[in-house]
Amino acid sequence: MKKVQDAEIAVIGAGIVGLATAYHLAKKGKRVVLFERNEMAVSASCRNFGLVWPIGQKAGINYERAMRSRSIWLELAKKADLQAQPVGSLQLVHHADELAVIEEFASTAQQNGYDCTLFTPSEVLQKSPAVKAEGLKGALFSPVEVMVNPRQAIWELPKYLEQLGVILRFGQAVNQINMPQIETRDEVWNIEKVFVCSGADFETLYPEVFADSNITKCKLQMLRTVGQPDNWKLGPALCAGLTLAHYASFSHCKTLEVLKKRFESEMAEYVKWGIHVLVSQNGEGELTLGDSHEYGLSFDPFDKTFINQLILEYLNSFAHFPKLQIAQSWHGIYPKLKNGNTELIVEPEKDVMIINGMGGAGMTLSFGMTHDIIEKFYGSVAIA
């Protein structure tokens, strides 16, 4: 016979969306149980750059949520002893059409709420020892980006949530929701409300909701170097021209169309495989490099060596490092809304809510978005 347990709220999934949801609920003084089907979270949330990336978010609510997430990450870094360095970012440009885009973006940045500055080549080189001077025309510097170590964060945050009173149930998949009860292999829980934060698992709970939504999956490939010698520091996170065509924040720039046409003509393989190149550094000095974007509901389980090579070739065009020795390569799969939106909030039945669809911005948006959702249900009263 299964053991019967009680809690106010169940959160299903201990990726970043589930962790953020449980965090805000615990701060409200709710009795929360957090379920994760694996012994530790091993999906997209621990397989990314760990970059909190407000500069890539569209002006308005997404940028505001990103900045709220930023504040929470920095607070958690102190309370939960996480790696979270507020180093900012440099968007490097090497062609006139790329320079035109960042100049146009900078001209509207203040009115759209962004904090950023155009840097000359000499200013860029003073900011990061990794940037190559050859062909550099300047950069857009944003001071607000934060480098989080995703593996440490995703695996250590549950311990902090436990200190806040969250009940952890790792290695226990939720097999059935029949409100006001949910069931795992070993337990039945009496619950008032459930938040389903299942990431790219569209098949286990409420598959009909995902089938009827505008959601798909994205596979990305990434690499990581060995730790850099002699305490060498990257400085700001780095990216280059391809990134201008990737993030929604630049989509309003009229000059972007000219740039995209050049990419389609001169860098067709990069466009085909959705490659743009970012570099971040974790607290161990390791550099995370990537990434690519393939879309669909199922993927070849084997990584493509030529994609990793394309990433490294483009990286070599704008940056250099003391030790570019690759220690690991991997892929991740995350949910992505086809219409470009960054939230799928659905109530498939009374007292059950699905939170999903942030695409590749989970580390950036999760704490901000789930804050808004929890505030809507439970108001602004919170415990210290």
Quick structural gist:
By secondary structure, the protein is an alpha/beta fold. The chain is built from 10 helices and 22 strands.
Key phrases:
single chain; 384 residues; alpha/beta; 9-stranded mixed beta sheet; 6-stranded mixed beta sheet; 27% strand; globular
What would your notes on this structure say?
The chain is an alpha/beta fold and 384 residues long. Helices cover 32% and strands 27% of the residues. It contains ten helices and 22 strands. Strand 21 (344-349) and strand 22 form a beta hairpin. Helix 1 (16-27) packs parallel to helix 10 (362-378). It is globular, with a radius of gyration of 21 Å. The model has no long low-confidence stretch (mean pLDDT 96).
Give a short account of the largest sheet.
9 strands, mixed
Shape category? globular
Helical stretch tally: 10
- Please estimate the helix content: 25-40%
List the helices and strands and how they pair.
Layout: E1 3-6, E2 9-12, H1 16-27, E3 32-36, E4 51-52, H2 61-79, E5 84-85, E6 89-93, H3 96-112, E7 117-119, H4 121-127, E8 138-142, E9 146-148, H5 150-163, E10 167-170, E11 176-178, E12 181-183, E13 187-190, E14 193-196, H6 207-212, E15 215-227, E16 237-239, H7 256-266, H8 268-272, E17 278-281, E18 286-290, E19 294-296, H9 305-318, E20 326-337, E21 344-349, E22 352-356, H10 362-378
Parallel strand pairs: 1-13, 2-3, 2-14, 3-10, 6-16, 14-22
Antiparallel strand pairs: 4-9, 5-9, 6-8, 7-8, 11-12, 12-13, 15-18, 15-19, 15-20, 16-17, 17-18, 21-22
